[in-house]
Design brief:
By secondary structure, the protein is an all-alpha fold. It is built from five helices and no strands. Helix 2 crosses helix 3 and helix 4 runs antiparallel to helix 5. The relative contact order is 0.16.
């Protein structure tokens, strides 16, 4: 049986990467962007939670820091789903009746 976590446990991977990966390596956004071969603005948007983690960026972090790309992408997916669920309160859709 799968464990069901409350949606509030879903965190954007960007701020997590900043606090748990970038800062412990004593790196700043510019230095990390250079190392990952991405632009500073693109990395800044991710680390500040304003842009989604792409598979390509997840692979860059995996290669540079050893953190699992799959784990980071699951974090992004969980965050996206939690955001969509909270926004879905305004969408009124009725359940389709099962066929007899």
């Amino acid at each position: 049986m799968a464990i069901k976590l409350h949606d509030s446990f879903a965190v954007h991977p960007g701020p997590w990467l900043l606090e748990e990966i970038v800062k412990p390596y004593n790196m700043n956004v510019s230095g990390t962007a250079d190392h990952l071969k991405v632009t500073r603005p693109a990395l800044s948007r991710l680390l500040n939670g304003r842009a989604a983690l792409t598979p390509e960026m997840a692979i860059r972090f995996e290669k540079a820091f050893g953190v699992s790309a799959a784990t980071m992408l699951r974090m992004q997916s969980a965050y996206d789903l939690a955001q969509a669920k909270s926004a879905s309160e305004t969408v009124k859709i009725e359940r389709v009746r099962e066929p007899a």
